[in-house]
Amino acid sequence: MHLLTTITSLLCILLASISTAEAQDGQQPLQDSASKPNILFILTDDQDLHMDSLSYMPYLKEHIIDRGLSFNRHYCTVALCCPSRVSMWTGLAAHNTNVTDINPPYGGYPKFVAEGFNEDYLPLWLQEAGYGTYYVGKLYNGQSVSNYDSPHAAGWTGSDFLLDPYTYRYLNATFQRNHDKPVSYERKYVTDVVSDKAHGFLDDALRTREETGQPFFFTVAPTAPHSDVYIRRKNIDGDFDENSNVQSPPIPAERHKHLFEDVVVPRTPNFNPDKPGGASWISRLPKQNQTKVDFNDHFYRSRLRALQAVDEMVDSLVKRLSDAGVLENTYIVYSTDNGYTIGQHRRQPGKQCAFEQDINIPFIIRGPGIPEGASTNIVTTHTDVAPTFLALTGARPPSAFELDGQAIPLNGVETDGRRQEHVNVEMWGIIMSEGKYGSILYPNHTYKALRIEGEAYGYLYVVWCSGEHELYDMKLDPYQLNNLHRSEPAAAVSLRRNTASLAPNSSVPMPEPMSMPDSSSDSSRDDGAGSDVSHTAVASLIHRLDAVLMVLKTCSGRQCTHPWDSLFPNGEVKTLADALDDSYNDFFETKVEKVQYDKCEKGYIAESEGPVWSSHQVFGMNHEIAFE
Questions:
Q1: Which residues are annotated as modified residue 3-oxoalanine (Cys) in the UniProt record (predicted)?
Q2: Residue positions annotated with a catalytic role
């Protein structure tokens, strides 16, 4: 049996190394049900990677980090709970799920149901492949005491869901088990309740496996370290405002309240900086005074304390798997729905931005055949999660269902050196920070963003519905303090106009650190002869990033995983490095439309999102003729 398990593991990893399209064409159950791997997926809520929260979880380190593979470049594609989770469970980008908010009319559980996904998503596909499926904790925002049965969430052999308006109440949560009525757990610590329920379902799954050979897929989704949220109205449908809820620091279990008394938010260069940065409302934030900094340090400590009960749960679940003799045939995945910010860029606690703190998140896996104590920098996203689980289990979605992600190489190695280097990040609507000083709604928080990471380069490029742009060189400016794209739309136009008449360079160099235009400089000044070269480099880079984002903003299927193939169907360009060849200058500058919005909206309304990519915007030998 040990030899069969090892062979099975290697085959699973091989499947996970190929593209989603290839995996779907060839995926068949690899062996009988009795030898299929189990999967335990632990999904926290709002957990950061860039404020060192993982360093305060010793059991997580012992059982998963030290025994598994950490993905340093794993990203959510929407830095907001419900849209991110829907993308995970469907393998689709948010513009294809049309679930873009946490509440109706643009998001939440009712929107998930209305879009038809309750009849066609991951747990149903896994059940078709012979898996028992279990879930404990938070599934989606907007799944409430009034709509949990209209309809019940499909696809789960056993479930115990947290329900609004009590989902984020650490000491007053409400759960709803299978098809039973909701039950309130007043004065009981919510993560401990989640842990107890998780052990109950795990015992059920283990018993069923022993009796019938059925493997299991089990998700445990505690709300820690999310803030404690008191929702003032049971139903929020299109009328969310500053008074809709109160968001306070998370509440730790009584046994953990004394921990980390001297710990503060890491004082990275982008923590409460002297100069404002970013765009839109972020660029107007005042520097935090000491009172606010002290409160945010308290908020940070509360998050770390709240994670201790999660860490204890990790320990107990792993030990239960070990005691049952199935640990070595079980994949354990640890992740979160989106990242988190406290103080960076002068922000109050929250998420929803395209900054690295909000989108670069923990993703760690251990299991048969997985390298131990290893890490990788290959780029992966939450739209890859469903394809990865499909590859591991031999399951498949309906044949007409084309996924926007691709299976993650679980050996941490790029099989051909050409795996995706991009992340398509989207956001719509409003943003509201959390905590004592963050309850302010900022409208028009709608943007498209491209995060691209190669071996020698890394960039974040953002286009806001207001017409503002951001560009950060992540190798030279990892804390995203210097916006290389002039914030004001007029300055951006001026930059393009100043470079349009220049003769093409013999080559387009990657921008050097000292030659970059200063985002704080006067956009009308003449920097002399040397500035033309640097401006040309930046402008040429922007044209290429914009072209990829143009494809991604409405992509589906392979367009999402291989956007360069849409622009260059002959395959000559696979990466940004390939695209920097000077021979493509005219194509990128004049033949591909630019990403822009016609109107800021609270949700995904295609008619307001400007031009879209079409097959006419393709490079070829005769592309000049095609665009006449």
A1: 81
A2: 81
